């Protein structure tokens, strides 16, 4: 943990109270509570109810958040002298160690609470009995409050009748604001078309829904089931903020059918269509999906992993993306199921969008296993060298970039001050186009780090090399450690580079003798 000088603490504690509160709001709940140990003024600010009105504990590891920890966090929102709680929203998604009794007591004690998110919380999804208990706690907390508690929860597919009765009910002081139906036991299969129609009809009578996870709920090839899903999404589109349609076997026909229902989703910021390998089988379907993406002005996160996108399909979708996008996943689209081939056109389209300022907000790009090859790496390198490129994470694993592609990337990164994470695993970076062993890429990487102090992590797992290459990887790891420490003196950096090059030269004569041995064994070498 970085240590601060007394002068830094004095400047921080001298901030006006509103500014200090905004600083604390930018921290995670655990960091917010720990800030009180710095000085007395921060201790008072960390107990201010104003900074605990919205409590997101979903980032905690599943078993790290106990009942005692949750009560401790919630108690910080208690106002004085009334003793009431100022907590407005609480997210305990994935908190497997928090008991339902504790959640019920929190709801009963916080009359101001209006939003509760508990996706996959606990060992079992929500059921009707638990929801009735939660509703009774809500009545006790706010007997005269007209606004119901907005719940985002996971639901077991076997209990669909219970869910329908909850959604249709007007007597319970809760409403379903978010619904995760992806959970299934070994005995569960996809929803029937009739069940989807029932759910769509129930949601039409309910208040707006902001989150829907419909991963694997139906067979996209079933026209009746697809019609039911379109009906459901048409009703929820106006308020939807996050939607997952992963693993539904959607094809081109499904894209055309969904186009009209999703065009009205003006608030949608997260969309997942992952694991639909038939998505790009028809050009008309790709065109419909491109129109849909272009009509989503607030989309920030898009997942198209494993959708069978070929070069032409991927390039068409990239051109349709809106400037609001911040995270894009196109991994495992090696053109096997779509038109075109390789990954050159997709990489060129992305590079053009990044270079001309169209995707200036894009921070995370995942192109794992897209068969980019050296030409795709060269196109992306051109974008990384542009001033408008805002990428901080670039995942290029399993793309056969070879030493030439990595050298192009390293040359571009010498002038890049934003990228922090780079994945080059399983790219045969120690082989050239003729299959001969070479250390050119590792030398270029080490030289690049002499001028790039921003890059913090490089993943090199699955790249076979010899002892000389291993020495260079160790030197690269030391340079990255210096970057993570917040900088390094030039003399220290020169020493690191010298050790790397000297070790490499000492083993140079053994490269040819050992290269084939290491290539065959393919050891896993990683810099983290």
Please give a handful of descriptors for the protein shown:
4 domains; globular; alpha/beta; 14-stranded parallel β-sheet; 9% strand; single chain; 528 residues
Q: How many structural domains are formed by the residues?
A: 4
The biggest beta sheet reads: 14 strands, parallel
Count of individual helical segments:
20
CATH topology of the largest domain: Leucine-rich repeat, LRR (right-handed beta-alpha superhelix)
Structural class: alpha/beta
Fraction of residues in β-strands: 5-15%
Alpha-carbon Rg, integer: 27 Å
Summarize the structure.
The chain has 528 residues and is α/β, with parallel strands linked by helices.
Describe the structure.
- The protein has 528 residues and is of the alpha/beta class.
- The chain is 42% helix and 9% strand.
- Strand 8, helix 12 and strand 9 form a beta-alpha-beta unit.
- The radius of gyration is 27 Å and the shape is globular.
- The chain has four domains: 51 residues; 136 residues, no CATH class; 158 residues, Alpha-Beta Horseshoe (Leucine-rich repeat, LRR (right-handed beta-alpha superhelix)); 148 residues, Leucine-rich repeat, LRR (right-handed beta-alpha superhelix), CATH 3.80.10.
- The longest helix has 18 residues.
- It has 20 helices and 14 strands.
């Amino acid at each position: 943990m970085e240590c601060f000088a007394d002068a830094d603490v004095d400047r921080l504690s001298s901030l006006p109270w509103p500014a200090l509160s905004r600083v604390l709001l930018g921290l995670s709940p655990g960091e917010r509570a720990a800030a009180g140990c710095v000085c007395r003024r921060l201790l008072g600010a960390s107990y201010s109810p104003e900074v605990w009105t919205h409590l997101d504990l979903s980032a905690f590891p599943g078993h790290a958040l106990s009942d005692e920890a949750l009560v401790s966090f919630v108690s910080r929102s208690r106002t004085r002298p009334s003793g009431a709680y100022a907590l407005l929203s609480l997210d305990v998604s994935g908190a497997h160690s928090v008991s339902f009794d504790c959640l019920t007591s929190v709801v009963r004690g916080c009359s101001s609470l209006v939003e509760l998110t508990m996706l996959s919380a606990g060992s079992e999804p929500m059921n009707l009995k638990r929801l009735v208990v939660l509703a009774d706690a809500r009545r006790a907390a706010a007997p005269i409050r007209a606004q119901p508690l907005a719940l985002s929860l996971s639901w077991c597919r076997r209990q669909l009748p219970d869910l329908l009765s909850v959604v249709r009910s007007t007597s319970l002081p809760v409403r379903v604001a978010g619904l995760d139906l992806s959970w299934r036991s070994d005995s569960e299969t996809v929803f029937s078309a009739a069940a989807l129609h029932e759910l769509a009809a129930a949601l039409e009578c309910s208040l707006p829904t902001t989150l829907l996870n419909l991963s694997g709920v139906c067979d996209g090839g079933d026209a009746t089931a697809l019609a039911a899903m379109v009906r459901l999404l048409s009703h929820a589109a106006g308020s939807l903020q996050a939607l997952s349609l992963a693993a539904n076997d959607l094809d081109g026909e499904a894209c055309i059918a969904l186009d009209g229902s999703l065009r009205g989703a003006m608030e949608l910021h997260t969309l997942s269509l992952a694991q639909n390998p038939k998505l790009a089988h028809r050009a008309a379907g790709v065109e419909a999906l491109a129109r849909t993406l272009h009509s989503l002005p607030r989309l920030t996160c898009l997942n198209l992993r494993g959708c069978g996108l070929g070069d032409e399909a991927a390039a068409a979708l990239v051109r349709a993306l809106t400037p609001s996008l911040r995270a894009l996943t196109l991994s495992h689209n090696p053109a096997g199921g779509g038109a075109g081939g390789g990954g050159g056109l997709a990489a060129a389209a992305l590079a053009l969008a990044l270079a001309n300022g169209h995707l200036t907000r894009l921070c995370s790009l995942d192109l794992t296993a897209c068969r980019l090859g050296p030409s795709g790496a060269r196109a992306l390198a051109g974008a990384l060298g542009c001033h408008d490129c805002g990428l901080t994470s670039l995942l290029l694993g399993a793309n056969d970039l070879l030493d030439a592609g990595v050298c192009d990337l390293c040359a571009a990164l010498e002038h890049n001050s934003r990228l922090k994470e780079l994945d080059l695993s399983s790219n045969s970076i120690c082989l050239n186009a003729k299959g001969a062993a070479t250390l050119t890429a590792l030398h270029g990487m080490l030289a690049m780090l002499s001028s790039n102090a921003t890059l913090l992590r490089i993943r090199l797992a699955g790249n076979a090399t010899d002892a000389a290459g291993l020495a260079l990887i160790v030197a690269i790891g030391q340079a990255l450690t210096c970057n993570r420490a917040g900088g390094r003196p030039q003399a220290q950096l020169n020493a690191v580079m010298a050790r790397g090059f000297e070790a490499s030269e000492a083993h140079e004569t053994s490269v040819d003798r050992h290269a084939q041995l290491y290539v065959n064994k393919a050891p896993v070498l990683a810099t983290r």
